[in-house]
């Protein structure tokens, strides 16, 4: 059954005349008659009875017309909802981001965007890196904000910024008076790490791999806040960005001078996904706010 057949059926049912319906639909009468006949054949019953020159719905036709009109209304609603979502001045952008970005970067970024485009709405997904990449690959999200480790040839990437990573220490640690430290000094030191569900874990893992450091990891946490809390309680040390939320913990922050430790964050989107007009507005905003040097 084709959607066009349903529209033709509704027109004939409303006008009760094949010739008048064909004229309204800009069809030949034989073409319209064939369409109605094919619909009746598929349903297994006749839908009309002749009354003089008119076609009158029988009980099967009346039943089908009721459902057909409801289906048409639902399709029109769906078309309108899609139009509303892609409207460049009041649509919806689907955005996924890492858990660790929810406290500072995302509120700041979206707040600035909404100052300019107050009527554009967001569908937000706070995700692990794996979840984020799945949402992007399945076209369930327009954009993702994450670290670059999983970016491949199927994705575009736009750098948003870099944050320095510091060695976080408990207040009574032997290194609290150091002005800087080298990563190789962590070789035997108790270390509080992150599970792979946190995007920062991949950046830190790559740093350790490049320097061939195997830290004495005593625990893998899900969240940065948990890591900071355990470090402040004396469980070990950790590499962390000095974000506002983490600075509330009683910690000493020491610079890492060798190698340089940075967390890169950027926006990814699928190369084969056709961006909606409202998505293009967000992309241009990102490019303007974070120009690539």
Automatic annotation (TrEMBL):
PROSITE patterns the UniProt entry points to: HTH_LYSR (PS50931)
Protein name, per record: LysR family transcriptional regulator
Domain HTH lysR-type: from-to ranges: 1-58
Keyword annotations: DNA-binding, Transcription, Transcription regulation
Pfam family, one: LysR_substrate
GO molecular function: DNA binding; DNA-binding transcription factor activity
One cellular component (GO) term of this entry: cytosol
Keyword Cytoplasm in record: no
Family the entry assigns: Belongs to the LysR transcriptional regulatory family.
Organism name: Paenibacillus aurantius
């Amino acid at each position: 059954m084709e959607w066009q057949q349903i529209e033709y059926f509704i027109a004939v049912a409303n006008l009760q005349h094949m010739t008048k319906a064909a004229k309204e639909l800009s069809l030949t009468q034989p073409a319209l008659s064939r369409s109605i006949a094919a619909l009746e054949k598929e349903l297994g019953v006749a839908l009309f009875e002749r009354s003089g020159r008119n076609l009158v719905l029988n009980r099967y036709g009346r039943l089908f017309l009721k459902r057909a009109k409801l289906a048409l209304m639902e399709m029109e609603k769906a078309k309108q909802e899609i139009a509303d979502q892609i409207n460049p001045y009041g649509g919806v952008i689907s955005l996924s981001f890492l858990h660790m970005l929810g406290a500072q970067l995302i509120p700041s970024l979206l707040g600035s965007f909404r100052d300019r485009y107050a009527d554009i709405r967001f569908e937000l997904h706070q995700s692990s890196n794996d979840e984020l990449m799945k949402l992007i690959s399945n076209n369930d999200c327009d954009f993702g904000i994450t670290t670059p480790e999983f970016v491949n040839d199927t994705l575009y990437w736009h750098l948003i910024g870099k944050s320095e990573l510091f060695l976080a220490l408990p207040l009574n640690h032997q290194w609290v008076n150091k002005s800087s430290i080298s990563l190789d000094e962590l070789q035997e030191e108790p270390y509080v790490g992150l599970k792979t569900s946190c995007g920062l874990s991949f950046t830190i893992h790559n740093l350790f791999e490049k320097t061939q450091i195997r830290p004495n990891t005593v625990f893998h946490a899900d969240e940065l806040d948990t890591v900071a809390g355990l470090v402040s309680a004396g469980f070990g040390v950790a590499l962390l960005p000095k974000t506002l939320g983490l600075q509330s913990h009683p910690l000493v922050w020491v610079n890492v001078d060798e190698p340089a430790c940075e967390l890169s964050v950027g926006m990814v989107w699928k190369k084969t996904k056709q961006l909606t007009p409202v998505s293009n507005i967000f992309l241009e905003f990102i490019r303007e706010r974070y120009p690539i040097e």
